[in-house]
Design brief:
The structure holds 2 protein chains of 2 kinds.
Chain A lengths: L11 H9 L2 E2 L4 E6 L12 E9 L4 E8 L2 E9 L5 E8 L7 E6 L20 E9 L2 E8 L2 E9 L4 E6 L2 E5 L9 E9 L10 H18 L3
Antiparallel strand pairs in A: 2-7, 3-4, 4-5, 5-6, 6-13, 7-12, 8-9, 9-10, 10-13, 11-12
Chain B lengths: L1 H10 L3 H22 L7 H6 L3 E3 L8 E4 L3 E5 L13 E3 L3 E2 L16
Antiparallel strand pairs in B: 2-3, 3-4
Helix pairs in contact in B: 1-2
The chains are: A mainly beta, B alpha+beta.
Chain lengths: 220, 112
């Protein structure tokens, strides 16, 4: 019988370290903050008429739901080549100042079969905002020796607000009271982001081409 | 196929050739028909898109994902990670190592 090389009972700490490293981790959580008419934050049970389609041929998802009878449409896409996400959000909640986005960065998780996220140890990692403009920002992330950047850009004159060490709220522009549509781009990169982020339309075009090519060739 | 067969049969004048020609036209007719639904090929768009997701249940386990083969974003019924903190954004480069315990050198590990 051949024994596994791990663990060595005489080196328990090092055995545990070897078993749990390296591990994949969650680069960041991006979601919506939806407010009901009374100003409270909507829960999943507050969604009306939810529906979601994922078009596999183009790699594009469209989600529809209502909050107090106001419709929200979210289009979710990923660039075909780069690790870039595009979101297009259409809702009357935007000019009503009842829709915003959040991004939250967790630490990596050392748990067995974990999802790679630990939101409970904010002091174990660092998030800094840099390169702030009126419609873009870069987050510099550090988890021990692992570093990466997350670029974020949006249409209109939205604002960004730091809520906690690793949690930021993005408010779409509401000033003109007319805009029901906003687009957000998030670029995840292990190296420094030097180029301007692509538009939502460019990410969409890239996704459609990538997936049509893939399904017709089998080559990713 | 039948129409093609009959039309051409009238053109075939020599009686001696009629039976043979009808067989030829029958075969040609079959092969023309076969080309309309190319043999050995797949209508890939129809095959792929009939598996498109269409969800209406907020409790669907999920996640739904978009990605590019190297990177993926998993999301809930809102199209984002709004209500589910178990869904993730990961890339093939998103790997992390914690520092070795107590300043120990991993090379000092010995097989038991």
């Amino acid at each position: 019988m051949i024994a596994y090389d791990l663990p060595n009972p005489k080196q328990p700490a090092l055995s545990q370290w070897l078993a749990s490293n390296p591990h994949r981790f969650n680069l960041g959580r991006i979601g919506l903050i939806l407010k009901k008419r009374d100003g409270s934050i909507a829960k999943i049970s507050d969604l009306g008429s939810p529906s979601q389609q994922l078009n596999l041929w183009e790699g594009i998802s469209e989600s529809h739901f209502t909050i107090d009878d106001e419709t929200v449409k979210v289009t979710t896409i990923c660039d075909g080549q780069k690790d870039i996400l595009g979101f297009k959000i259409q809702s009357a909640l935007i000019p009503l100042n009842r829709l915003s986005l959040f991004i939250e960065f967790p630490y990596a998780s050392l748990g067995y079969f974990s999802n790679g996220s630990d939101y409970t140890t904010p002091k174990s990692h660092q998030t800094l905002m840099s390169a702030i403009t009126k419609n873009s920002v870069i987050f510099d992330r550090r988890l021990d020796s692992t570093t990466y950047q997350v670029g974020c850009a949006w249409t209109g004159n939205g604002t960004i607000e730091k809520k906690a060490a690793h949690r930021y709220i993005m408010h779409p522009a509401v000033s003109n009271g007319m805009t029901n549509t906003v687009e957000y781009i998030f670029d995840f990169s292990p190296s420094k982001i030097n180029e301007p982020l692509p538009s939502f339309a460019a990410v969409k075009t890239s996704s459609i081409k990538h997936w049509a090519d893939f399904w017709q060739s089998g080559v990713p | 196929m039948n129409l093609f067969f009959l039309t051409n049969l009238r053109i075939a004048k020599p009686k001696s050739c009629r039976i043979m020609l009808s067989w030829v036209l029958l075969i040609v007719g079959f092969s023309l028909n076969a080309q309309q639904v190319k043999r050995g090929t797949i209508n890939r768009k129809a095959l792929v898109t009939r598996h498109n997701l269409n969800l209406t249940n907020t409790h669907f386990a999920g996640p739904t994902q978009v990605g590019n083969g190297d990177f993926a974003y998993g999301f809930d019924i809102t199209g984002m990670q709004t209500f589910n903190d178990q869904f993730t954004t990961m890339s093939e480069w998103s790997w992390h190592s914690s520092p070795p315990p107590g300043g120990k050198d991993p090379n000092s590990f010995k097989k038991p």
